[in-house]
Hints:
It is built from 2 helices and 8 strands; from the N terminus they run E-E-E-H-E-E-H-E-E-E. It has helices spanning about 35-45, 65, and strands at about 5-10, 15-25, 30-35, 45-50, 55-60, 70-80, 80-90, 90-95. The radius of gyration is 13 Å and the shape is globular.
Amino acid sequence: MDGVIWSLANNYNETVTLLTSSLLHSDGSLIEKITSDRITKIWGSGDIEPGGTFDVHLAIKLLFYDVSEFQTVWTIRTATQGIVRCTYKSSLTSCIYN
């Protein structure tokens, strides 16, 4: 495998704005962090329409077993919930609403 793609699906009934996205090892050590400035520079906007997705592609060398150990952290802003931070691990999801 020559890289990894991590994605966020917007299941809200409103447009959300992606503020940051991070890919981490299972121990929490950072592999890559995408900031709002980088999101704007590369994608033009972090806005995700209802039902839409946001994909991040990272070209790194990986072993198959590495992928199952990753976790992703997404920080988004919604009009109704404010800032929400969600952590996705292989079969576990947790979101914190500020």
